[in-house]
Amino acid sequence: MKDYLRNRWIRIGLGIAAVGWTPLLAICALADAGLWHDPNPNPVGPGLLYFFTFWPAIICVIVGIVQVRRSARARTA
To answer: How much is the pLDDT for 63?
Structure first.
């Protein structure tokens, strides 16, 4: 697990996910808990942020996983 978290691509992907996904997920969670001022929110801005950061984050994490697995396979061979 430490090897995965040391990889730059995985850290970048997780950072993109944290910045891009947290606002929308927080608004949804707060609305479900009844703590948001609108019980049926339509967060367009956070939704667009989520939309534009979803695939770049996933791709960065996948690239990082492939790199870590290749380097681990090269060390054992």
So the answer is: 98
Domain span including residue 64: 2-72
- C-beta of residue 41 within 8 angstroms of C-beta of residue 27: yes
pTM above 0.85, yes or no: yes
Could you count the other beta carbons within 10 Å of the beta carbon of residue 43? 17
Q: Residue 77: is its pLDDT beyond 80?
A: no
- On whether residue 36 sits in a domain, the answer given is yes
Identify whether 46 is part of a domain.
yes
Domain membership flag for residue 77: no
Roughly how many angstroms between the first and final C-alpha of the chain, as a whole number?
A: 20
Residue among 54, 43, 45 nearest 20 (CA) = 54
Q: How many domains does the chain have?
A: 1
